[in-house]
Design a protein that fits this description.
Helix content is 42%, strand content 18%. It is α/β, with parallel strands linked by helices. Helix 3 crosses helix 4.
Length: 465
């Protein structure tokens, strides 16, 4: 795939970039490794000042970088601004909380004595240079939620971003440079996916984090496993959205629409499978379809647009194949199901609701990365749980019920890294984020995320000190 900015709203190639050659990659590896030797010795106050400065700069740049993201991958300008603001918040959160999250841990006195020590503690030390392989769908947020904790821990970072968001990738390197980070502390690598293995195998790269497809995750995990290097993987999702009779139906419907079409439905944590109890199914379906069918699809730069284009022609083709396979096998499109007839250019697709989904349909098993919802009717909580778990993914989940017993049952039985009751799944710097099953492993954000790329070091002192 060429490294280029191609406007998804028009299909026009606006700017292309040459991939780094071997020498340029080596130069950046050298800088990252060299920078780590000094950066790891900085204290939390120094790192906090740098990260707060980066947050200030990003806040000032918010409108400009939002337009860049919209141009490169098609998200609405409104949502791009919100993404930049979320990154600012995360930077400031880690700048404030990293020191306490990585504070020395002191075992109970009895455990220290049992070990034969006069004293002992655990210190979290940085690992080194971390390779981040990041996707295009949240081109700023996905990177910042890795970079903010990694840098606060004292690591250095190399970013291999998706090839269709090169200007966003280069902006991030420039942002940290302007904030005053040492040369080499955060660098962007303009390389294709074929270069990742060689970079990951380099001894100066000690670990990797990847957000992306299951295929990409398998590849990185395989190489890292062969090299015995730490990885964190956040892969695909097919999140269930369970609606039970005690739900506030007005809020459940409104949130369902946002949860399905935000970022044109191109989100791993978007609600995708809507599992509704038969007692409220008809009413939910009618309201949901009505709202989905009245969304404004069009120019992502326009403030009134609800749904912009998909990021690529291939992405739209993949989505069309899933919908066509489902309808050929008997599914019904309650709305949408085609390209908007009035939008001749760009990679747009109508918000769509499908019902009558069966197990032999690809869309029942595969992730839908676009504004297409699948709607299921279930008889009770047991059937809802079984259907919700009937997927190889386990990233997050939504459940709408005000019944405490049902909430406890779903918390116990839903197979996912997150369970969000009466609200939409979202990531927050103070809460751990990640999945189970084929949605990956490890956690980002909160203290769990910052400690993923630290060496939890036992420091033990014998009795003769």
């Amino acid at each position: 795939m060429a490294i280029a900015t191609v406007n998804p709203a028009t299909g026009e190639t606006l700017k292309t970039f040459d991939a780094f050659n071997v020498g340029e990659i080596e130069e950046r590896l050298y800088r990252a490794h060299s920078a780590f030797q000094d950066f790891r010795r900085t204290d939390f106050a120094q790192r906090s000042a740098l990260l707060n400065r980066a947050a200030d700069l990003l806040e000032a740049d918010q409108d400009d970088i939002a337009r860049t993201m919209t141009t490169e991958m098609g998200k609405t300008l409104v949502s791009a601004r919100a993404e930049a603001a979320k990154c600012v918040k995360a930077m400031r959160w880690y700048a404030e909380h990293a020191a306490e999250q990585l504070a020395d841990e002191h075992p109970a006195p009895g455990d220290v004595q049992d070990s034969g020590a006069a004293r002992a503690y655990v210190r979290y030390r940085p690992l080194g240079t971390i390779l981040a392989v990041m996707p295009w769908n949240f081109p700023l947020w996905q990177v910042v939620r890795f970079a903010a904790p990694a840098l606060m821990a004292g690591n250095t970072a190399l970013l291999k971003h998706a090839s269709n968001v090169p200007q966003t990738a280069l902006y991030l390197e420039d942002l940290f440079r302007r904030a005053g980070y040492p040369e080499g502390a955060f660098q962007t690598l303009l390389v294709g996916s074929a270069a990742v293995e060689g970079i990951l195998r380099d001894e100066r790269v000690v670990a990797a984090t990847l957000t992306g497809s299951e295929v990409a995750g398998r590849s990185v995990a395989s190489v890292a496993g062969d090299e015995v290097k730490k990885t964190v993987l956040e892969l695909g999702g097919s999140d269930p959205y369970v609606v039970l009779p005690s739900a506030d139906l007005d809020k459940a419907v409104r949130t369902a629409v946002t949860a399905r079409v935000q970022n044109a439905g191109q989100s791993c944590i978007a609600a995708k499978r809507f599992i509704v109890h038969t007692d409220v199914f008809d009413e939910f379906a009618a309201r949901f379809v009505d709202r989905m069918s009245t969304l404004t699809v069009g120019d992502p730069m326009a403030e009134a647009t609800d749904v912009g284009p998909l990021s690529s022609s291939q992405g739209r083709s993949d989505l069309e194949e899933l919908v066509d396979d489902a309808t050929r096998r008997g599914a019904a499109a309650l709305c949408g199901g085609q390209r908007p007839p009035l939008l001749e250019h760009g990679w747009f697709y109508e918000p769509t609701v499908l019902t009558g989904i069966t197990e032999e349909m690809r869309i029942h098993r595969e992730e839908t990365f676009g504004p297409v919802a699948t709607l299921y009717r279930v008889a009770d909580v047991d059937e809802a749980v079984t259907l919700a778990n009937d997927t190889s993914f386990g990233l997050s989940s939504n459940a709408w019920t005000r019944d405490a017993a049902e909430q406890e049952r779903l918390t116990r039985d839903l197979q996912a890294g997150g369970i969000f009751f009466n609200g939409m799944t979202a990531s927050h710097p103070g809460l751990p984020f990640g999945g189970v099953k084929r949605s990956g492993y490890g956690r980002e954000l909160a203290g769990h995320g910052i400690r993923e790329f630290c060496n939890a070091t036992t420091v033990w002192f014998g009795p003769e000190q």
